[in-house]
Amino acid sequence: MTITLQVNGVPRTVDVDPRMSLLDLLRERLGLIGAKKGCDHGQCGACTVLIDGRRANACLALAVAVDGREITTVEGLATDGELHPLQSAFMEHDAFQCGYCTPGQLCSAAGMLGEPGPSAVTEDLLDDPDLTPEEISERMSGNLCRCGAYVGIVAAIGEVAR
């Protein structure tokens, strides 16, 4: 099948097998290797990208399902040679160790910052709470870091959120 999508602001038309995941399309066909294949079951978040501005596990999305959509990978977060504020904050707060999960953490954080409303730890479910460390941790819980860099990750996101 032939699909057309925007990847990091660039229109792309690609022939894909209907069974191909978005992650495999990005990595194997488009050469965008930032999103990592961690568990390949949607459990670790290493493959997180933004689909029309909302975070998604690329390993679970079929490439044919994103026909006509806009995809942003970690490679597309920086603009005009300037790092995204999250990328700078991750460096300042040592929010990574081995770096394997970092692209997914960054994309997830970028999407999360645009998501209003309560989470499972919000006391008043009618509230749009401040992004406290507890809120950030809960909202980022779909992204795992085997090195345990969570303190830096939460601090970096908190800085950008403020």
UniProtKB/TrEMBL annotation:
Domain 2Fe-2S ferredoxin-type, residue spans: 1-77
PROSITE patterns the record matches: 2FE2S_FER_1 (PS00197), 2FE2S_FER_2 (PS51085)
CDD domains per the UniProt record, alphabetical: fer2
InterPro entries xref list: 2Fe-2S-bd (IPR002888), 2Fe-2S-bd_dom_sf (IPR036884), 2Fe-2S_ferredoxin-like_sf (IPR036010), 2Fe-2S_ferredoxin-type (IPR001041), 2Fe2S_fd_BS (IPR006058), Aldehyde_Oxdr_Iron-Sulfur (IPR052914), Beta-grasp_dom_sf (IPR012675)
Pathway terms, separated by semicolons: Alkaloid degradation; nicotine degradation
Gene Ontology terms, MF aspect: 2 iron, 2 sulfur cluster binding; metal ion binding; oxidoreductase activity, acting on the aldehyde or oxo group of donors
Residues that span the membrane, as ranges: none
Superkingdom of origin: Bacteria
Keyword terms of this UniProt record: 2Fe-2S, Iron, Iron-sulfur, Metal-binding, Oxidoreductase
Name of the protein this chain belongs to: (2Fe-2S)-binding protein
Species this protein is from: [Actinomadura] parvosata subsp. kistnae
